[in-house]
Design a protein that fits this description.
Number of helices: 6
Structural class: alpha/beta
Order of helices and strands: HHEHEHEEHEEEEEHEE
Largest sheet: 7 strands, mixed
Shape: globular
Helix content: 25-40%
Oligomer: single chain
CATH superfamily of the largest domain: Vaccinia Virus protein VP39
Bound molecules: S-adenosylmethionine
CATH architecture of the largest domain: 3-Layer(aba) Sandwich
CATH class of the largest domain: Alpha Beta
Number of domains: 2
CATH topology of the largest domain: Rossmann fold
Length: about 220
């Protein structure tokens, strides 16, 4: 919610172009699996468009928020990391977008996560993934009358960064609630991600990055061979 508030315009634009991209790849009623679904930014509108959506997300808190927003209760939710998810080769499209791969901080986790994506898809099904650029590894702050959000991103060594978020939310009585979260994230060079995907058996179908200019990420469509 606070992310949506602090980046409303970019967030809405990104959501629209991601949904447009999905619509060009598959038609409603198709089965979509959204890895690292968060609070359902994509899962919910896609299910409202008639897709059969499964949201995979390790954070119970995020899943609870998704369920609250999903008034029709039409999104199937699974509390799991990508790495631990066991697919059934029954999905028409998989999503792993909006920086999810940054949370995978070693090669084994990334390989296992992308293998899970592969195992969740039918033959010839498609996979939309974003690969964030180094531009996204910069600290930033957002303040308005309700929230103050300060994100500090510090390089630890090489491609590993420490991400610290300090969030202050004021209620109507001007009482502040403070949240802090710290974890590690990793920059993944495109070539490394591509090599793993090709080794697993994915084929590159298209580079969609032009549509996503300004988002700090490159977007690619792969197909399960
Ligand atoms: C920036 S959010 C993106 C949410 C969503 N994909 C979207 O487009 O709005 C990143 C999400 O990845 C989730 N995540 C972190 N580690 C993960 C893992 N190992 N497997 C799957 N999701 C993970 C986080 O909990 C968070 O909800």
């Amino acid at each position: 919610m606070t992310y949506e508030r602090s980046f409303r315009k970019l967030y809405q634009h990104l959501t629209n172009i991601t949904i447009e991209t999905v619509n060009k790849l598959v038609a409603p009623k198709a089965k979509i699996i959204d890895f690292g679904a968060g609070t359902g930014r994509l899962s919910i509108p896609l299910s409202e468009l008639g897709y059969e959506v499964t949201a995979v997300e390790p954070s119970k808190e995020m899943i609870n928020q998704l369920r609250k927003k999903d008034h029709e209760s039409s999104v199937e939710t699974v509390v799991s990391t990508m790495q631990d998810f066991k697919g059934n080769k029954d999905q028409d499209l998989a999503l792993c977008v909006f920086t999810v791969i940054l949370y995978l901080v070693d090669e084994k986790s990334l390989k296992n996560a992308l293998n899970s994506v592969y195992d969740s898809l039918k033959k010839d099904a498609v996979f939309l993934i974003d690969i964030p650029s180094r531009l996204l590894f910069n600290s930033y702050a957002y303040d308005d009358e309700k929230i103050s959000r300060h994100v500090n991103i510090k390089n630890l060594n090489g491609d590993i960064y420490e991400y610290t978020e300090n969030l202050t939310v004021s209620d109507i009585h001007h009482k502040d609630t403070v949240y802090t979260d710290t974890f590690h994230i990793k920059y993944w060079p495109k070539e490394e991600v591509f090599n793993i995907l090709l080794e697993i058996g994915f084929i590159l179908v298209s580079d969609q990055s032009e549509q996503f200019v300004g988002t700090g990420s490159q977007y690619y469509v792969f197909k399960k061979s």
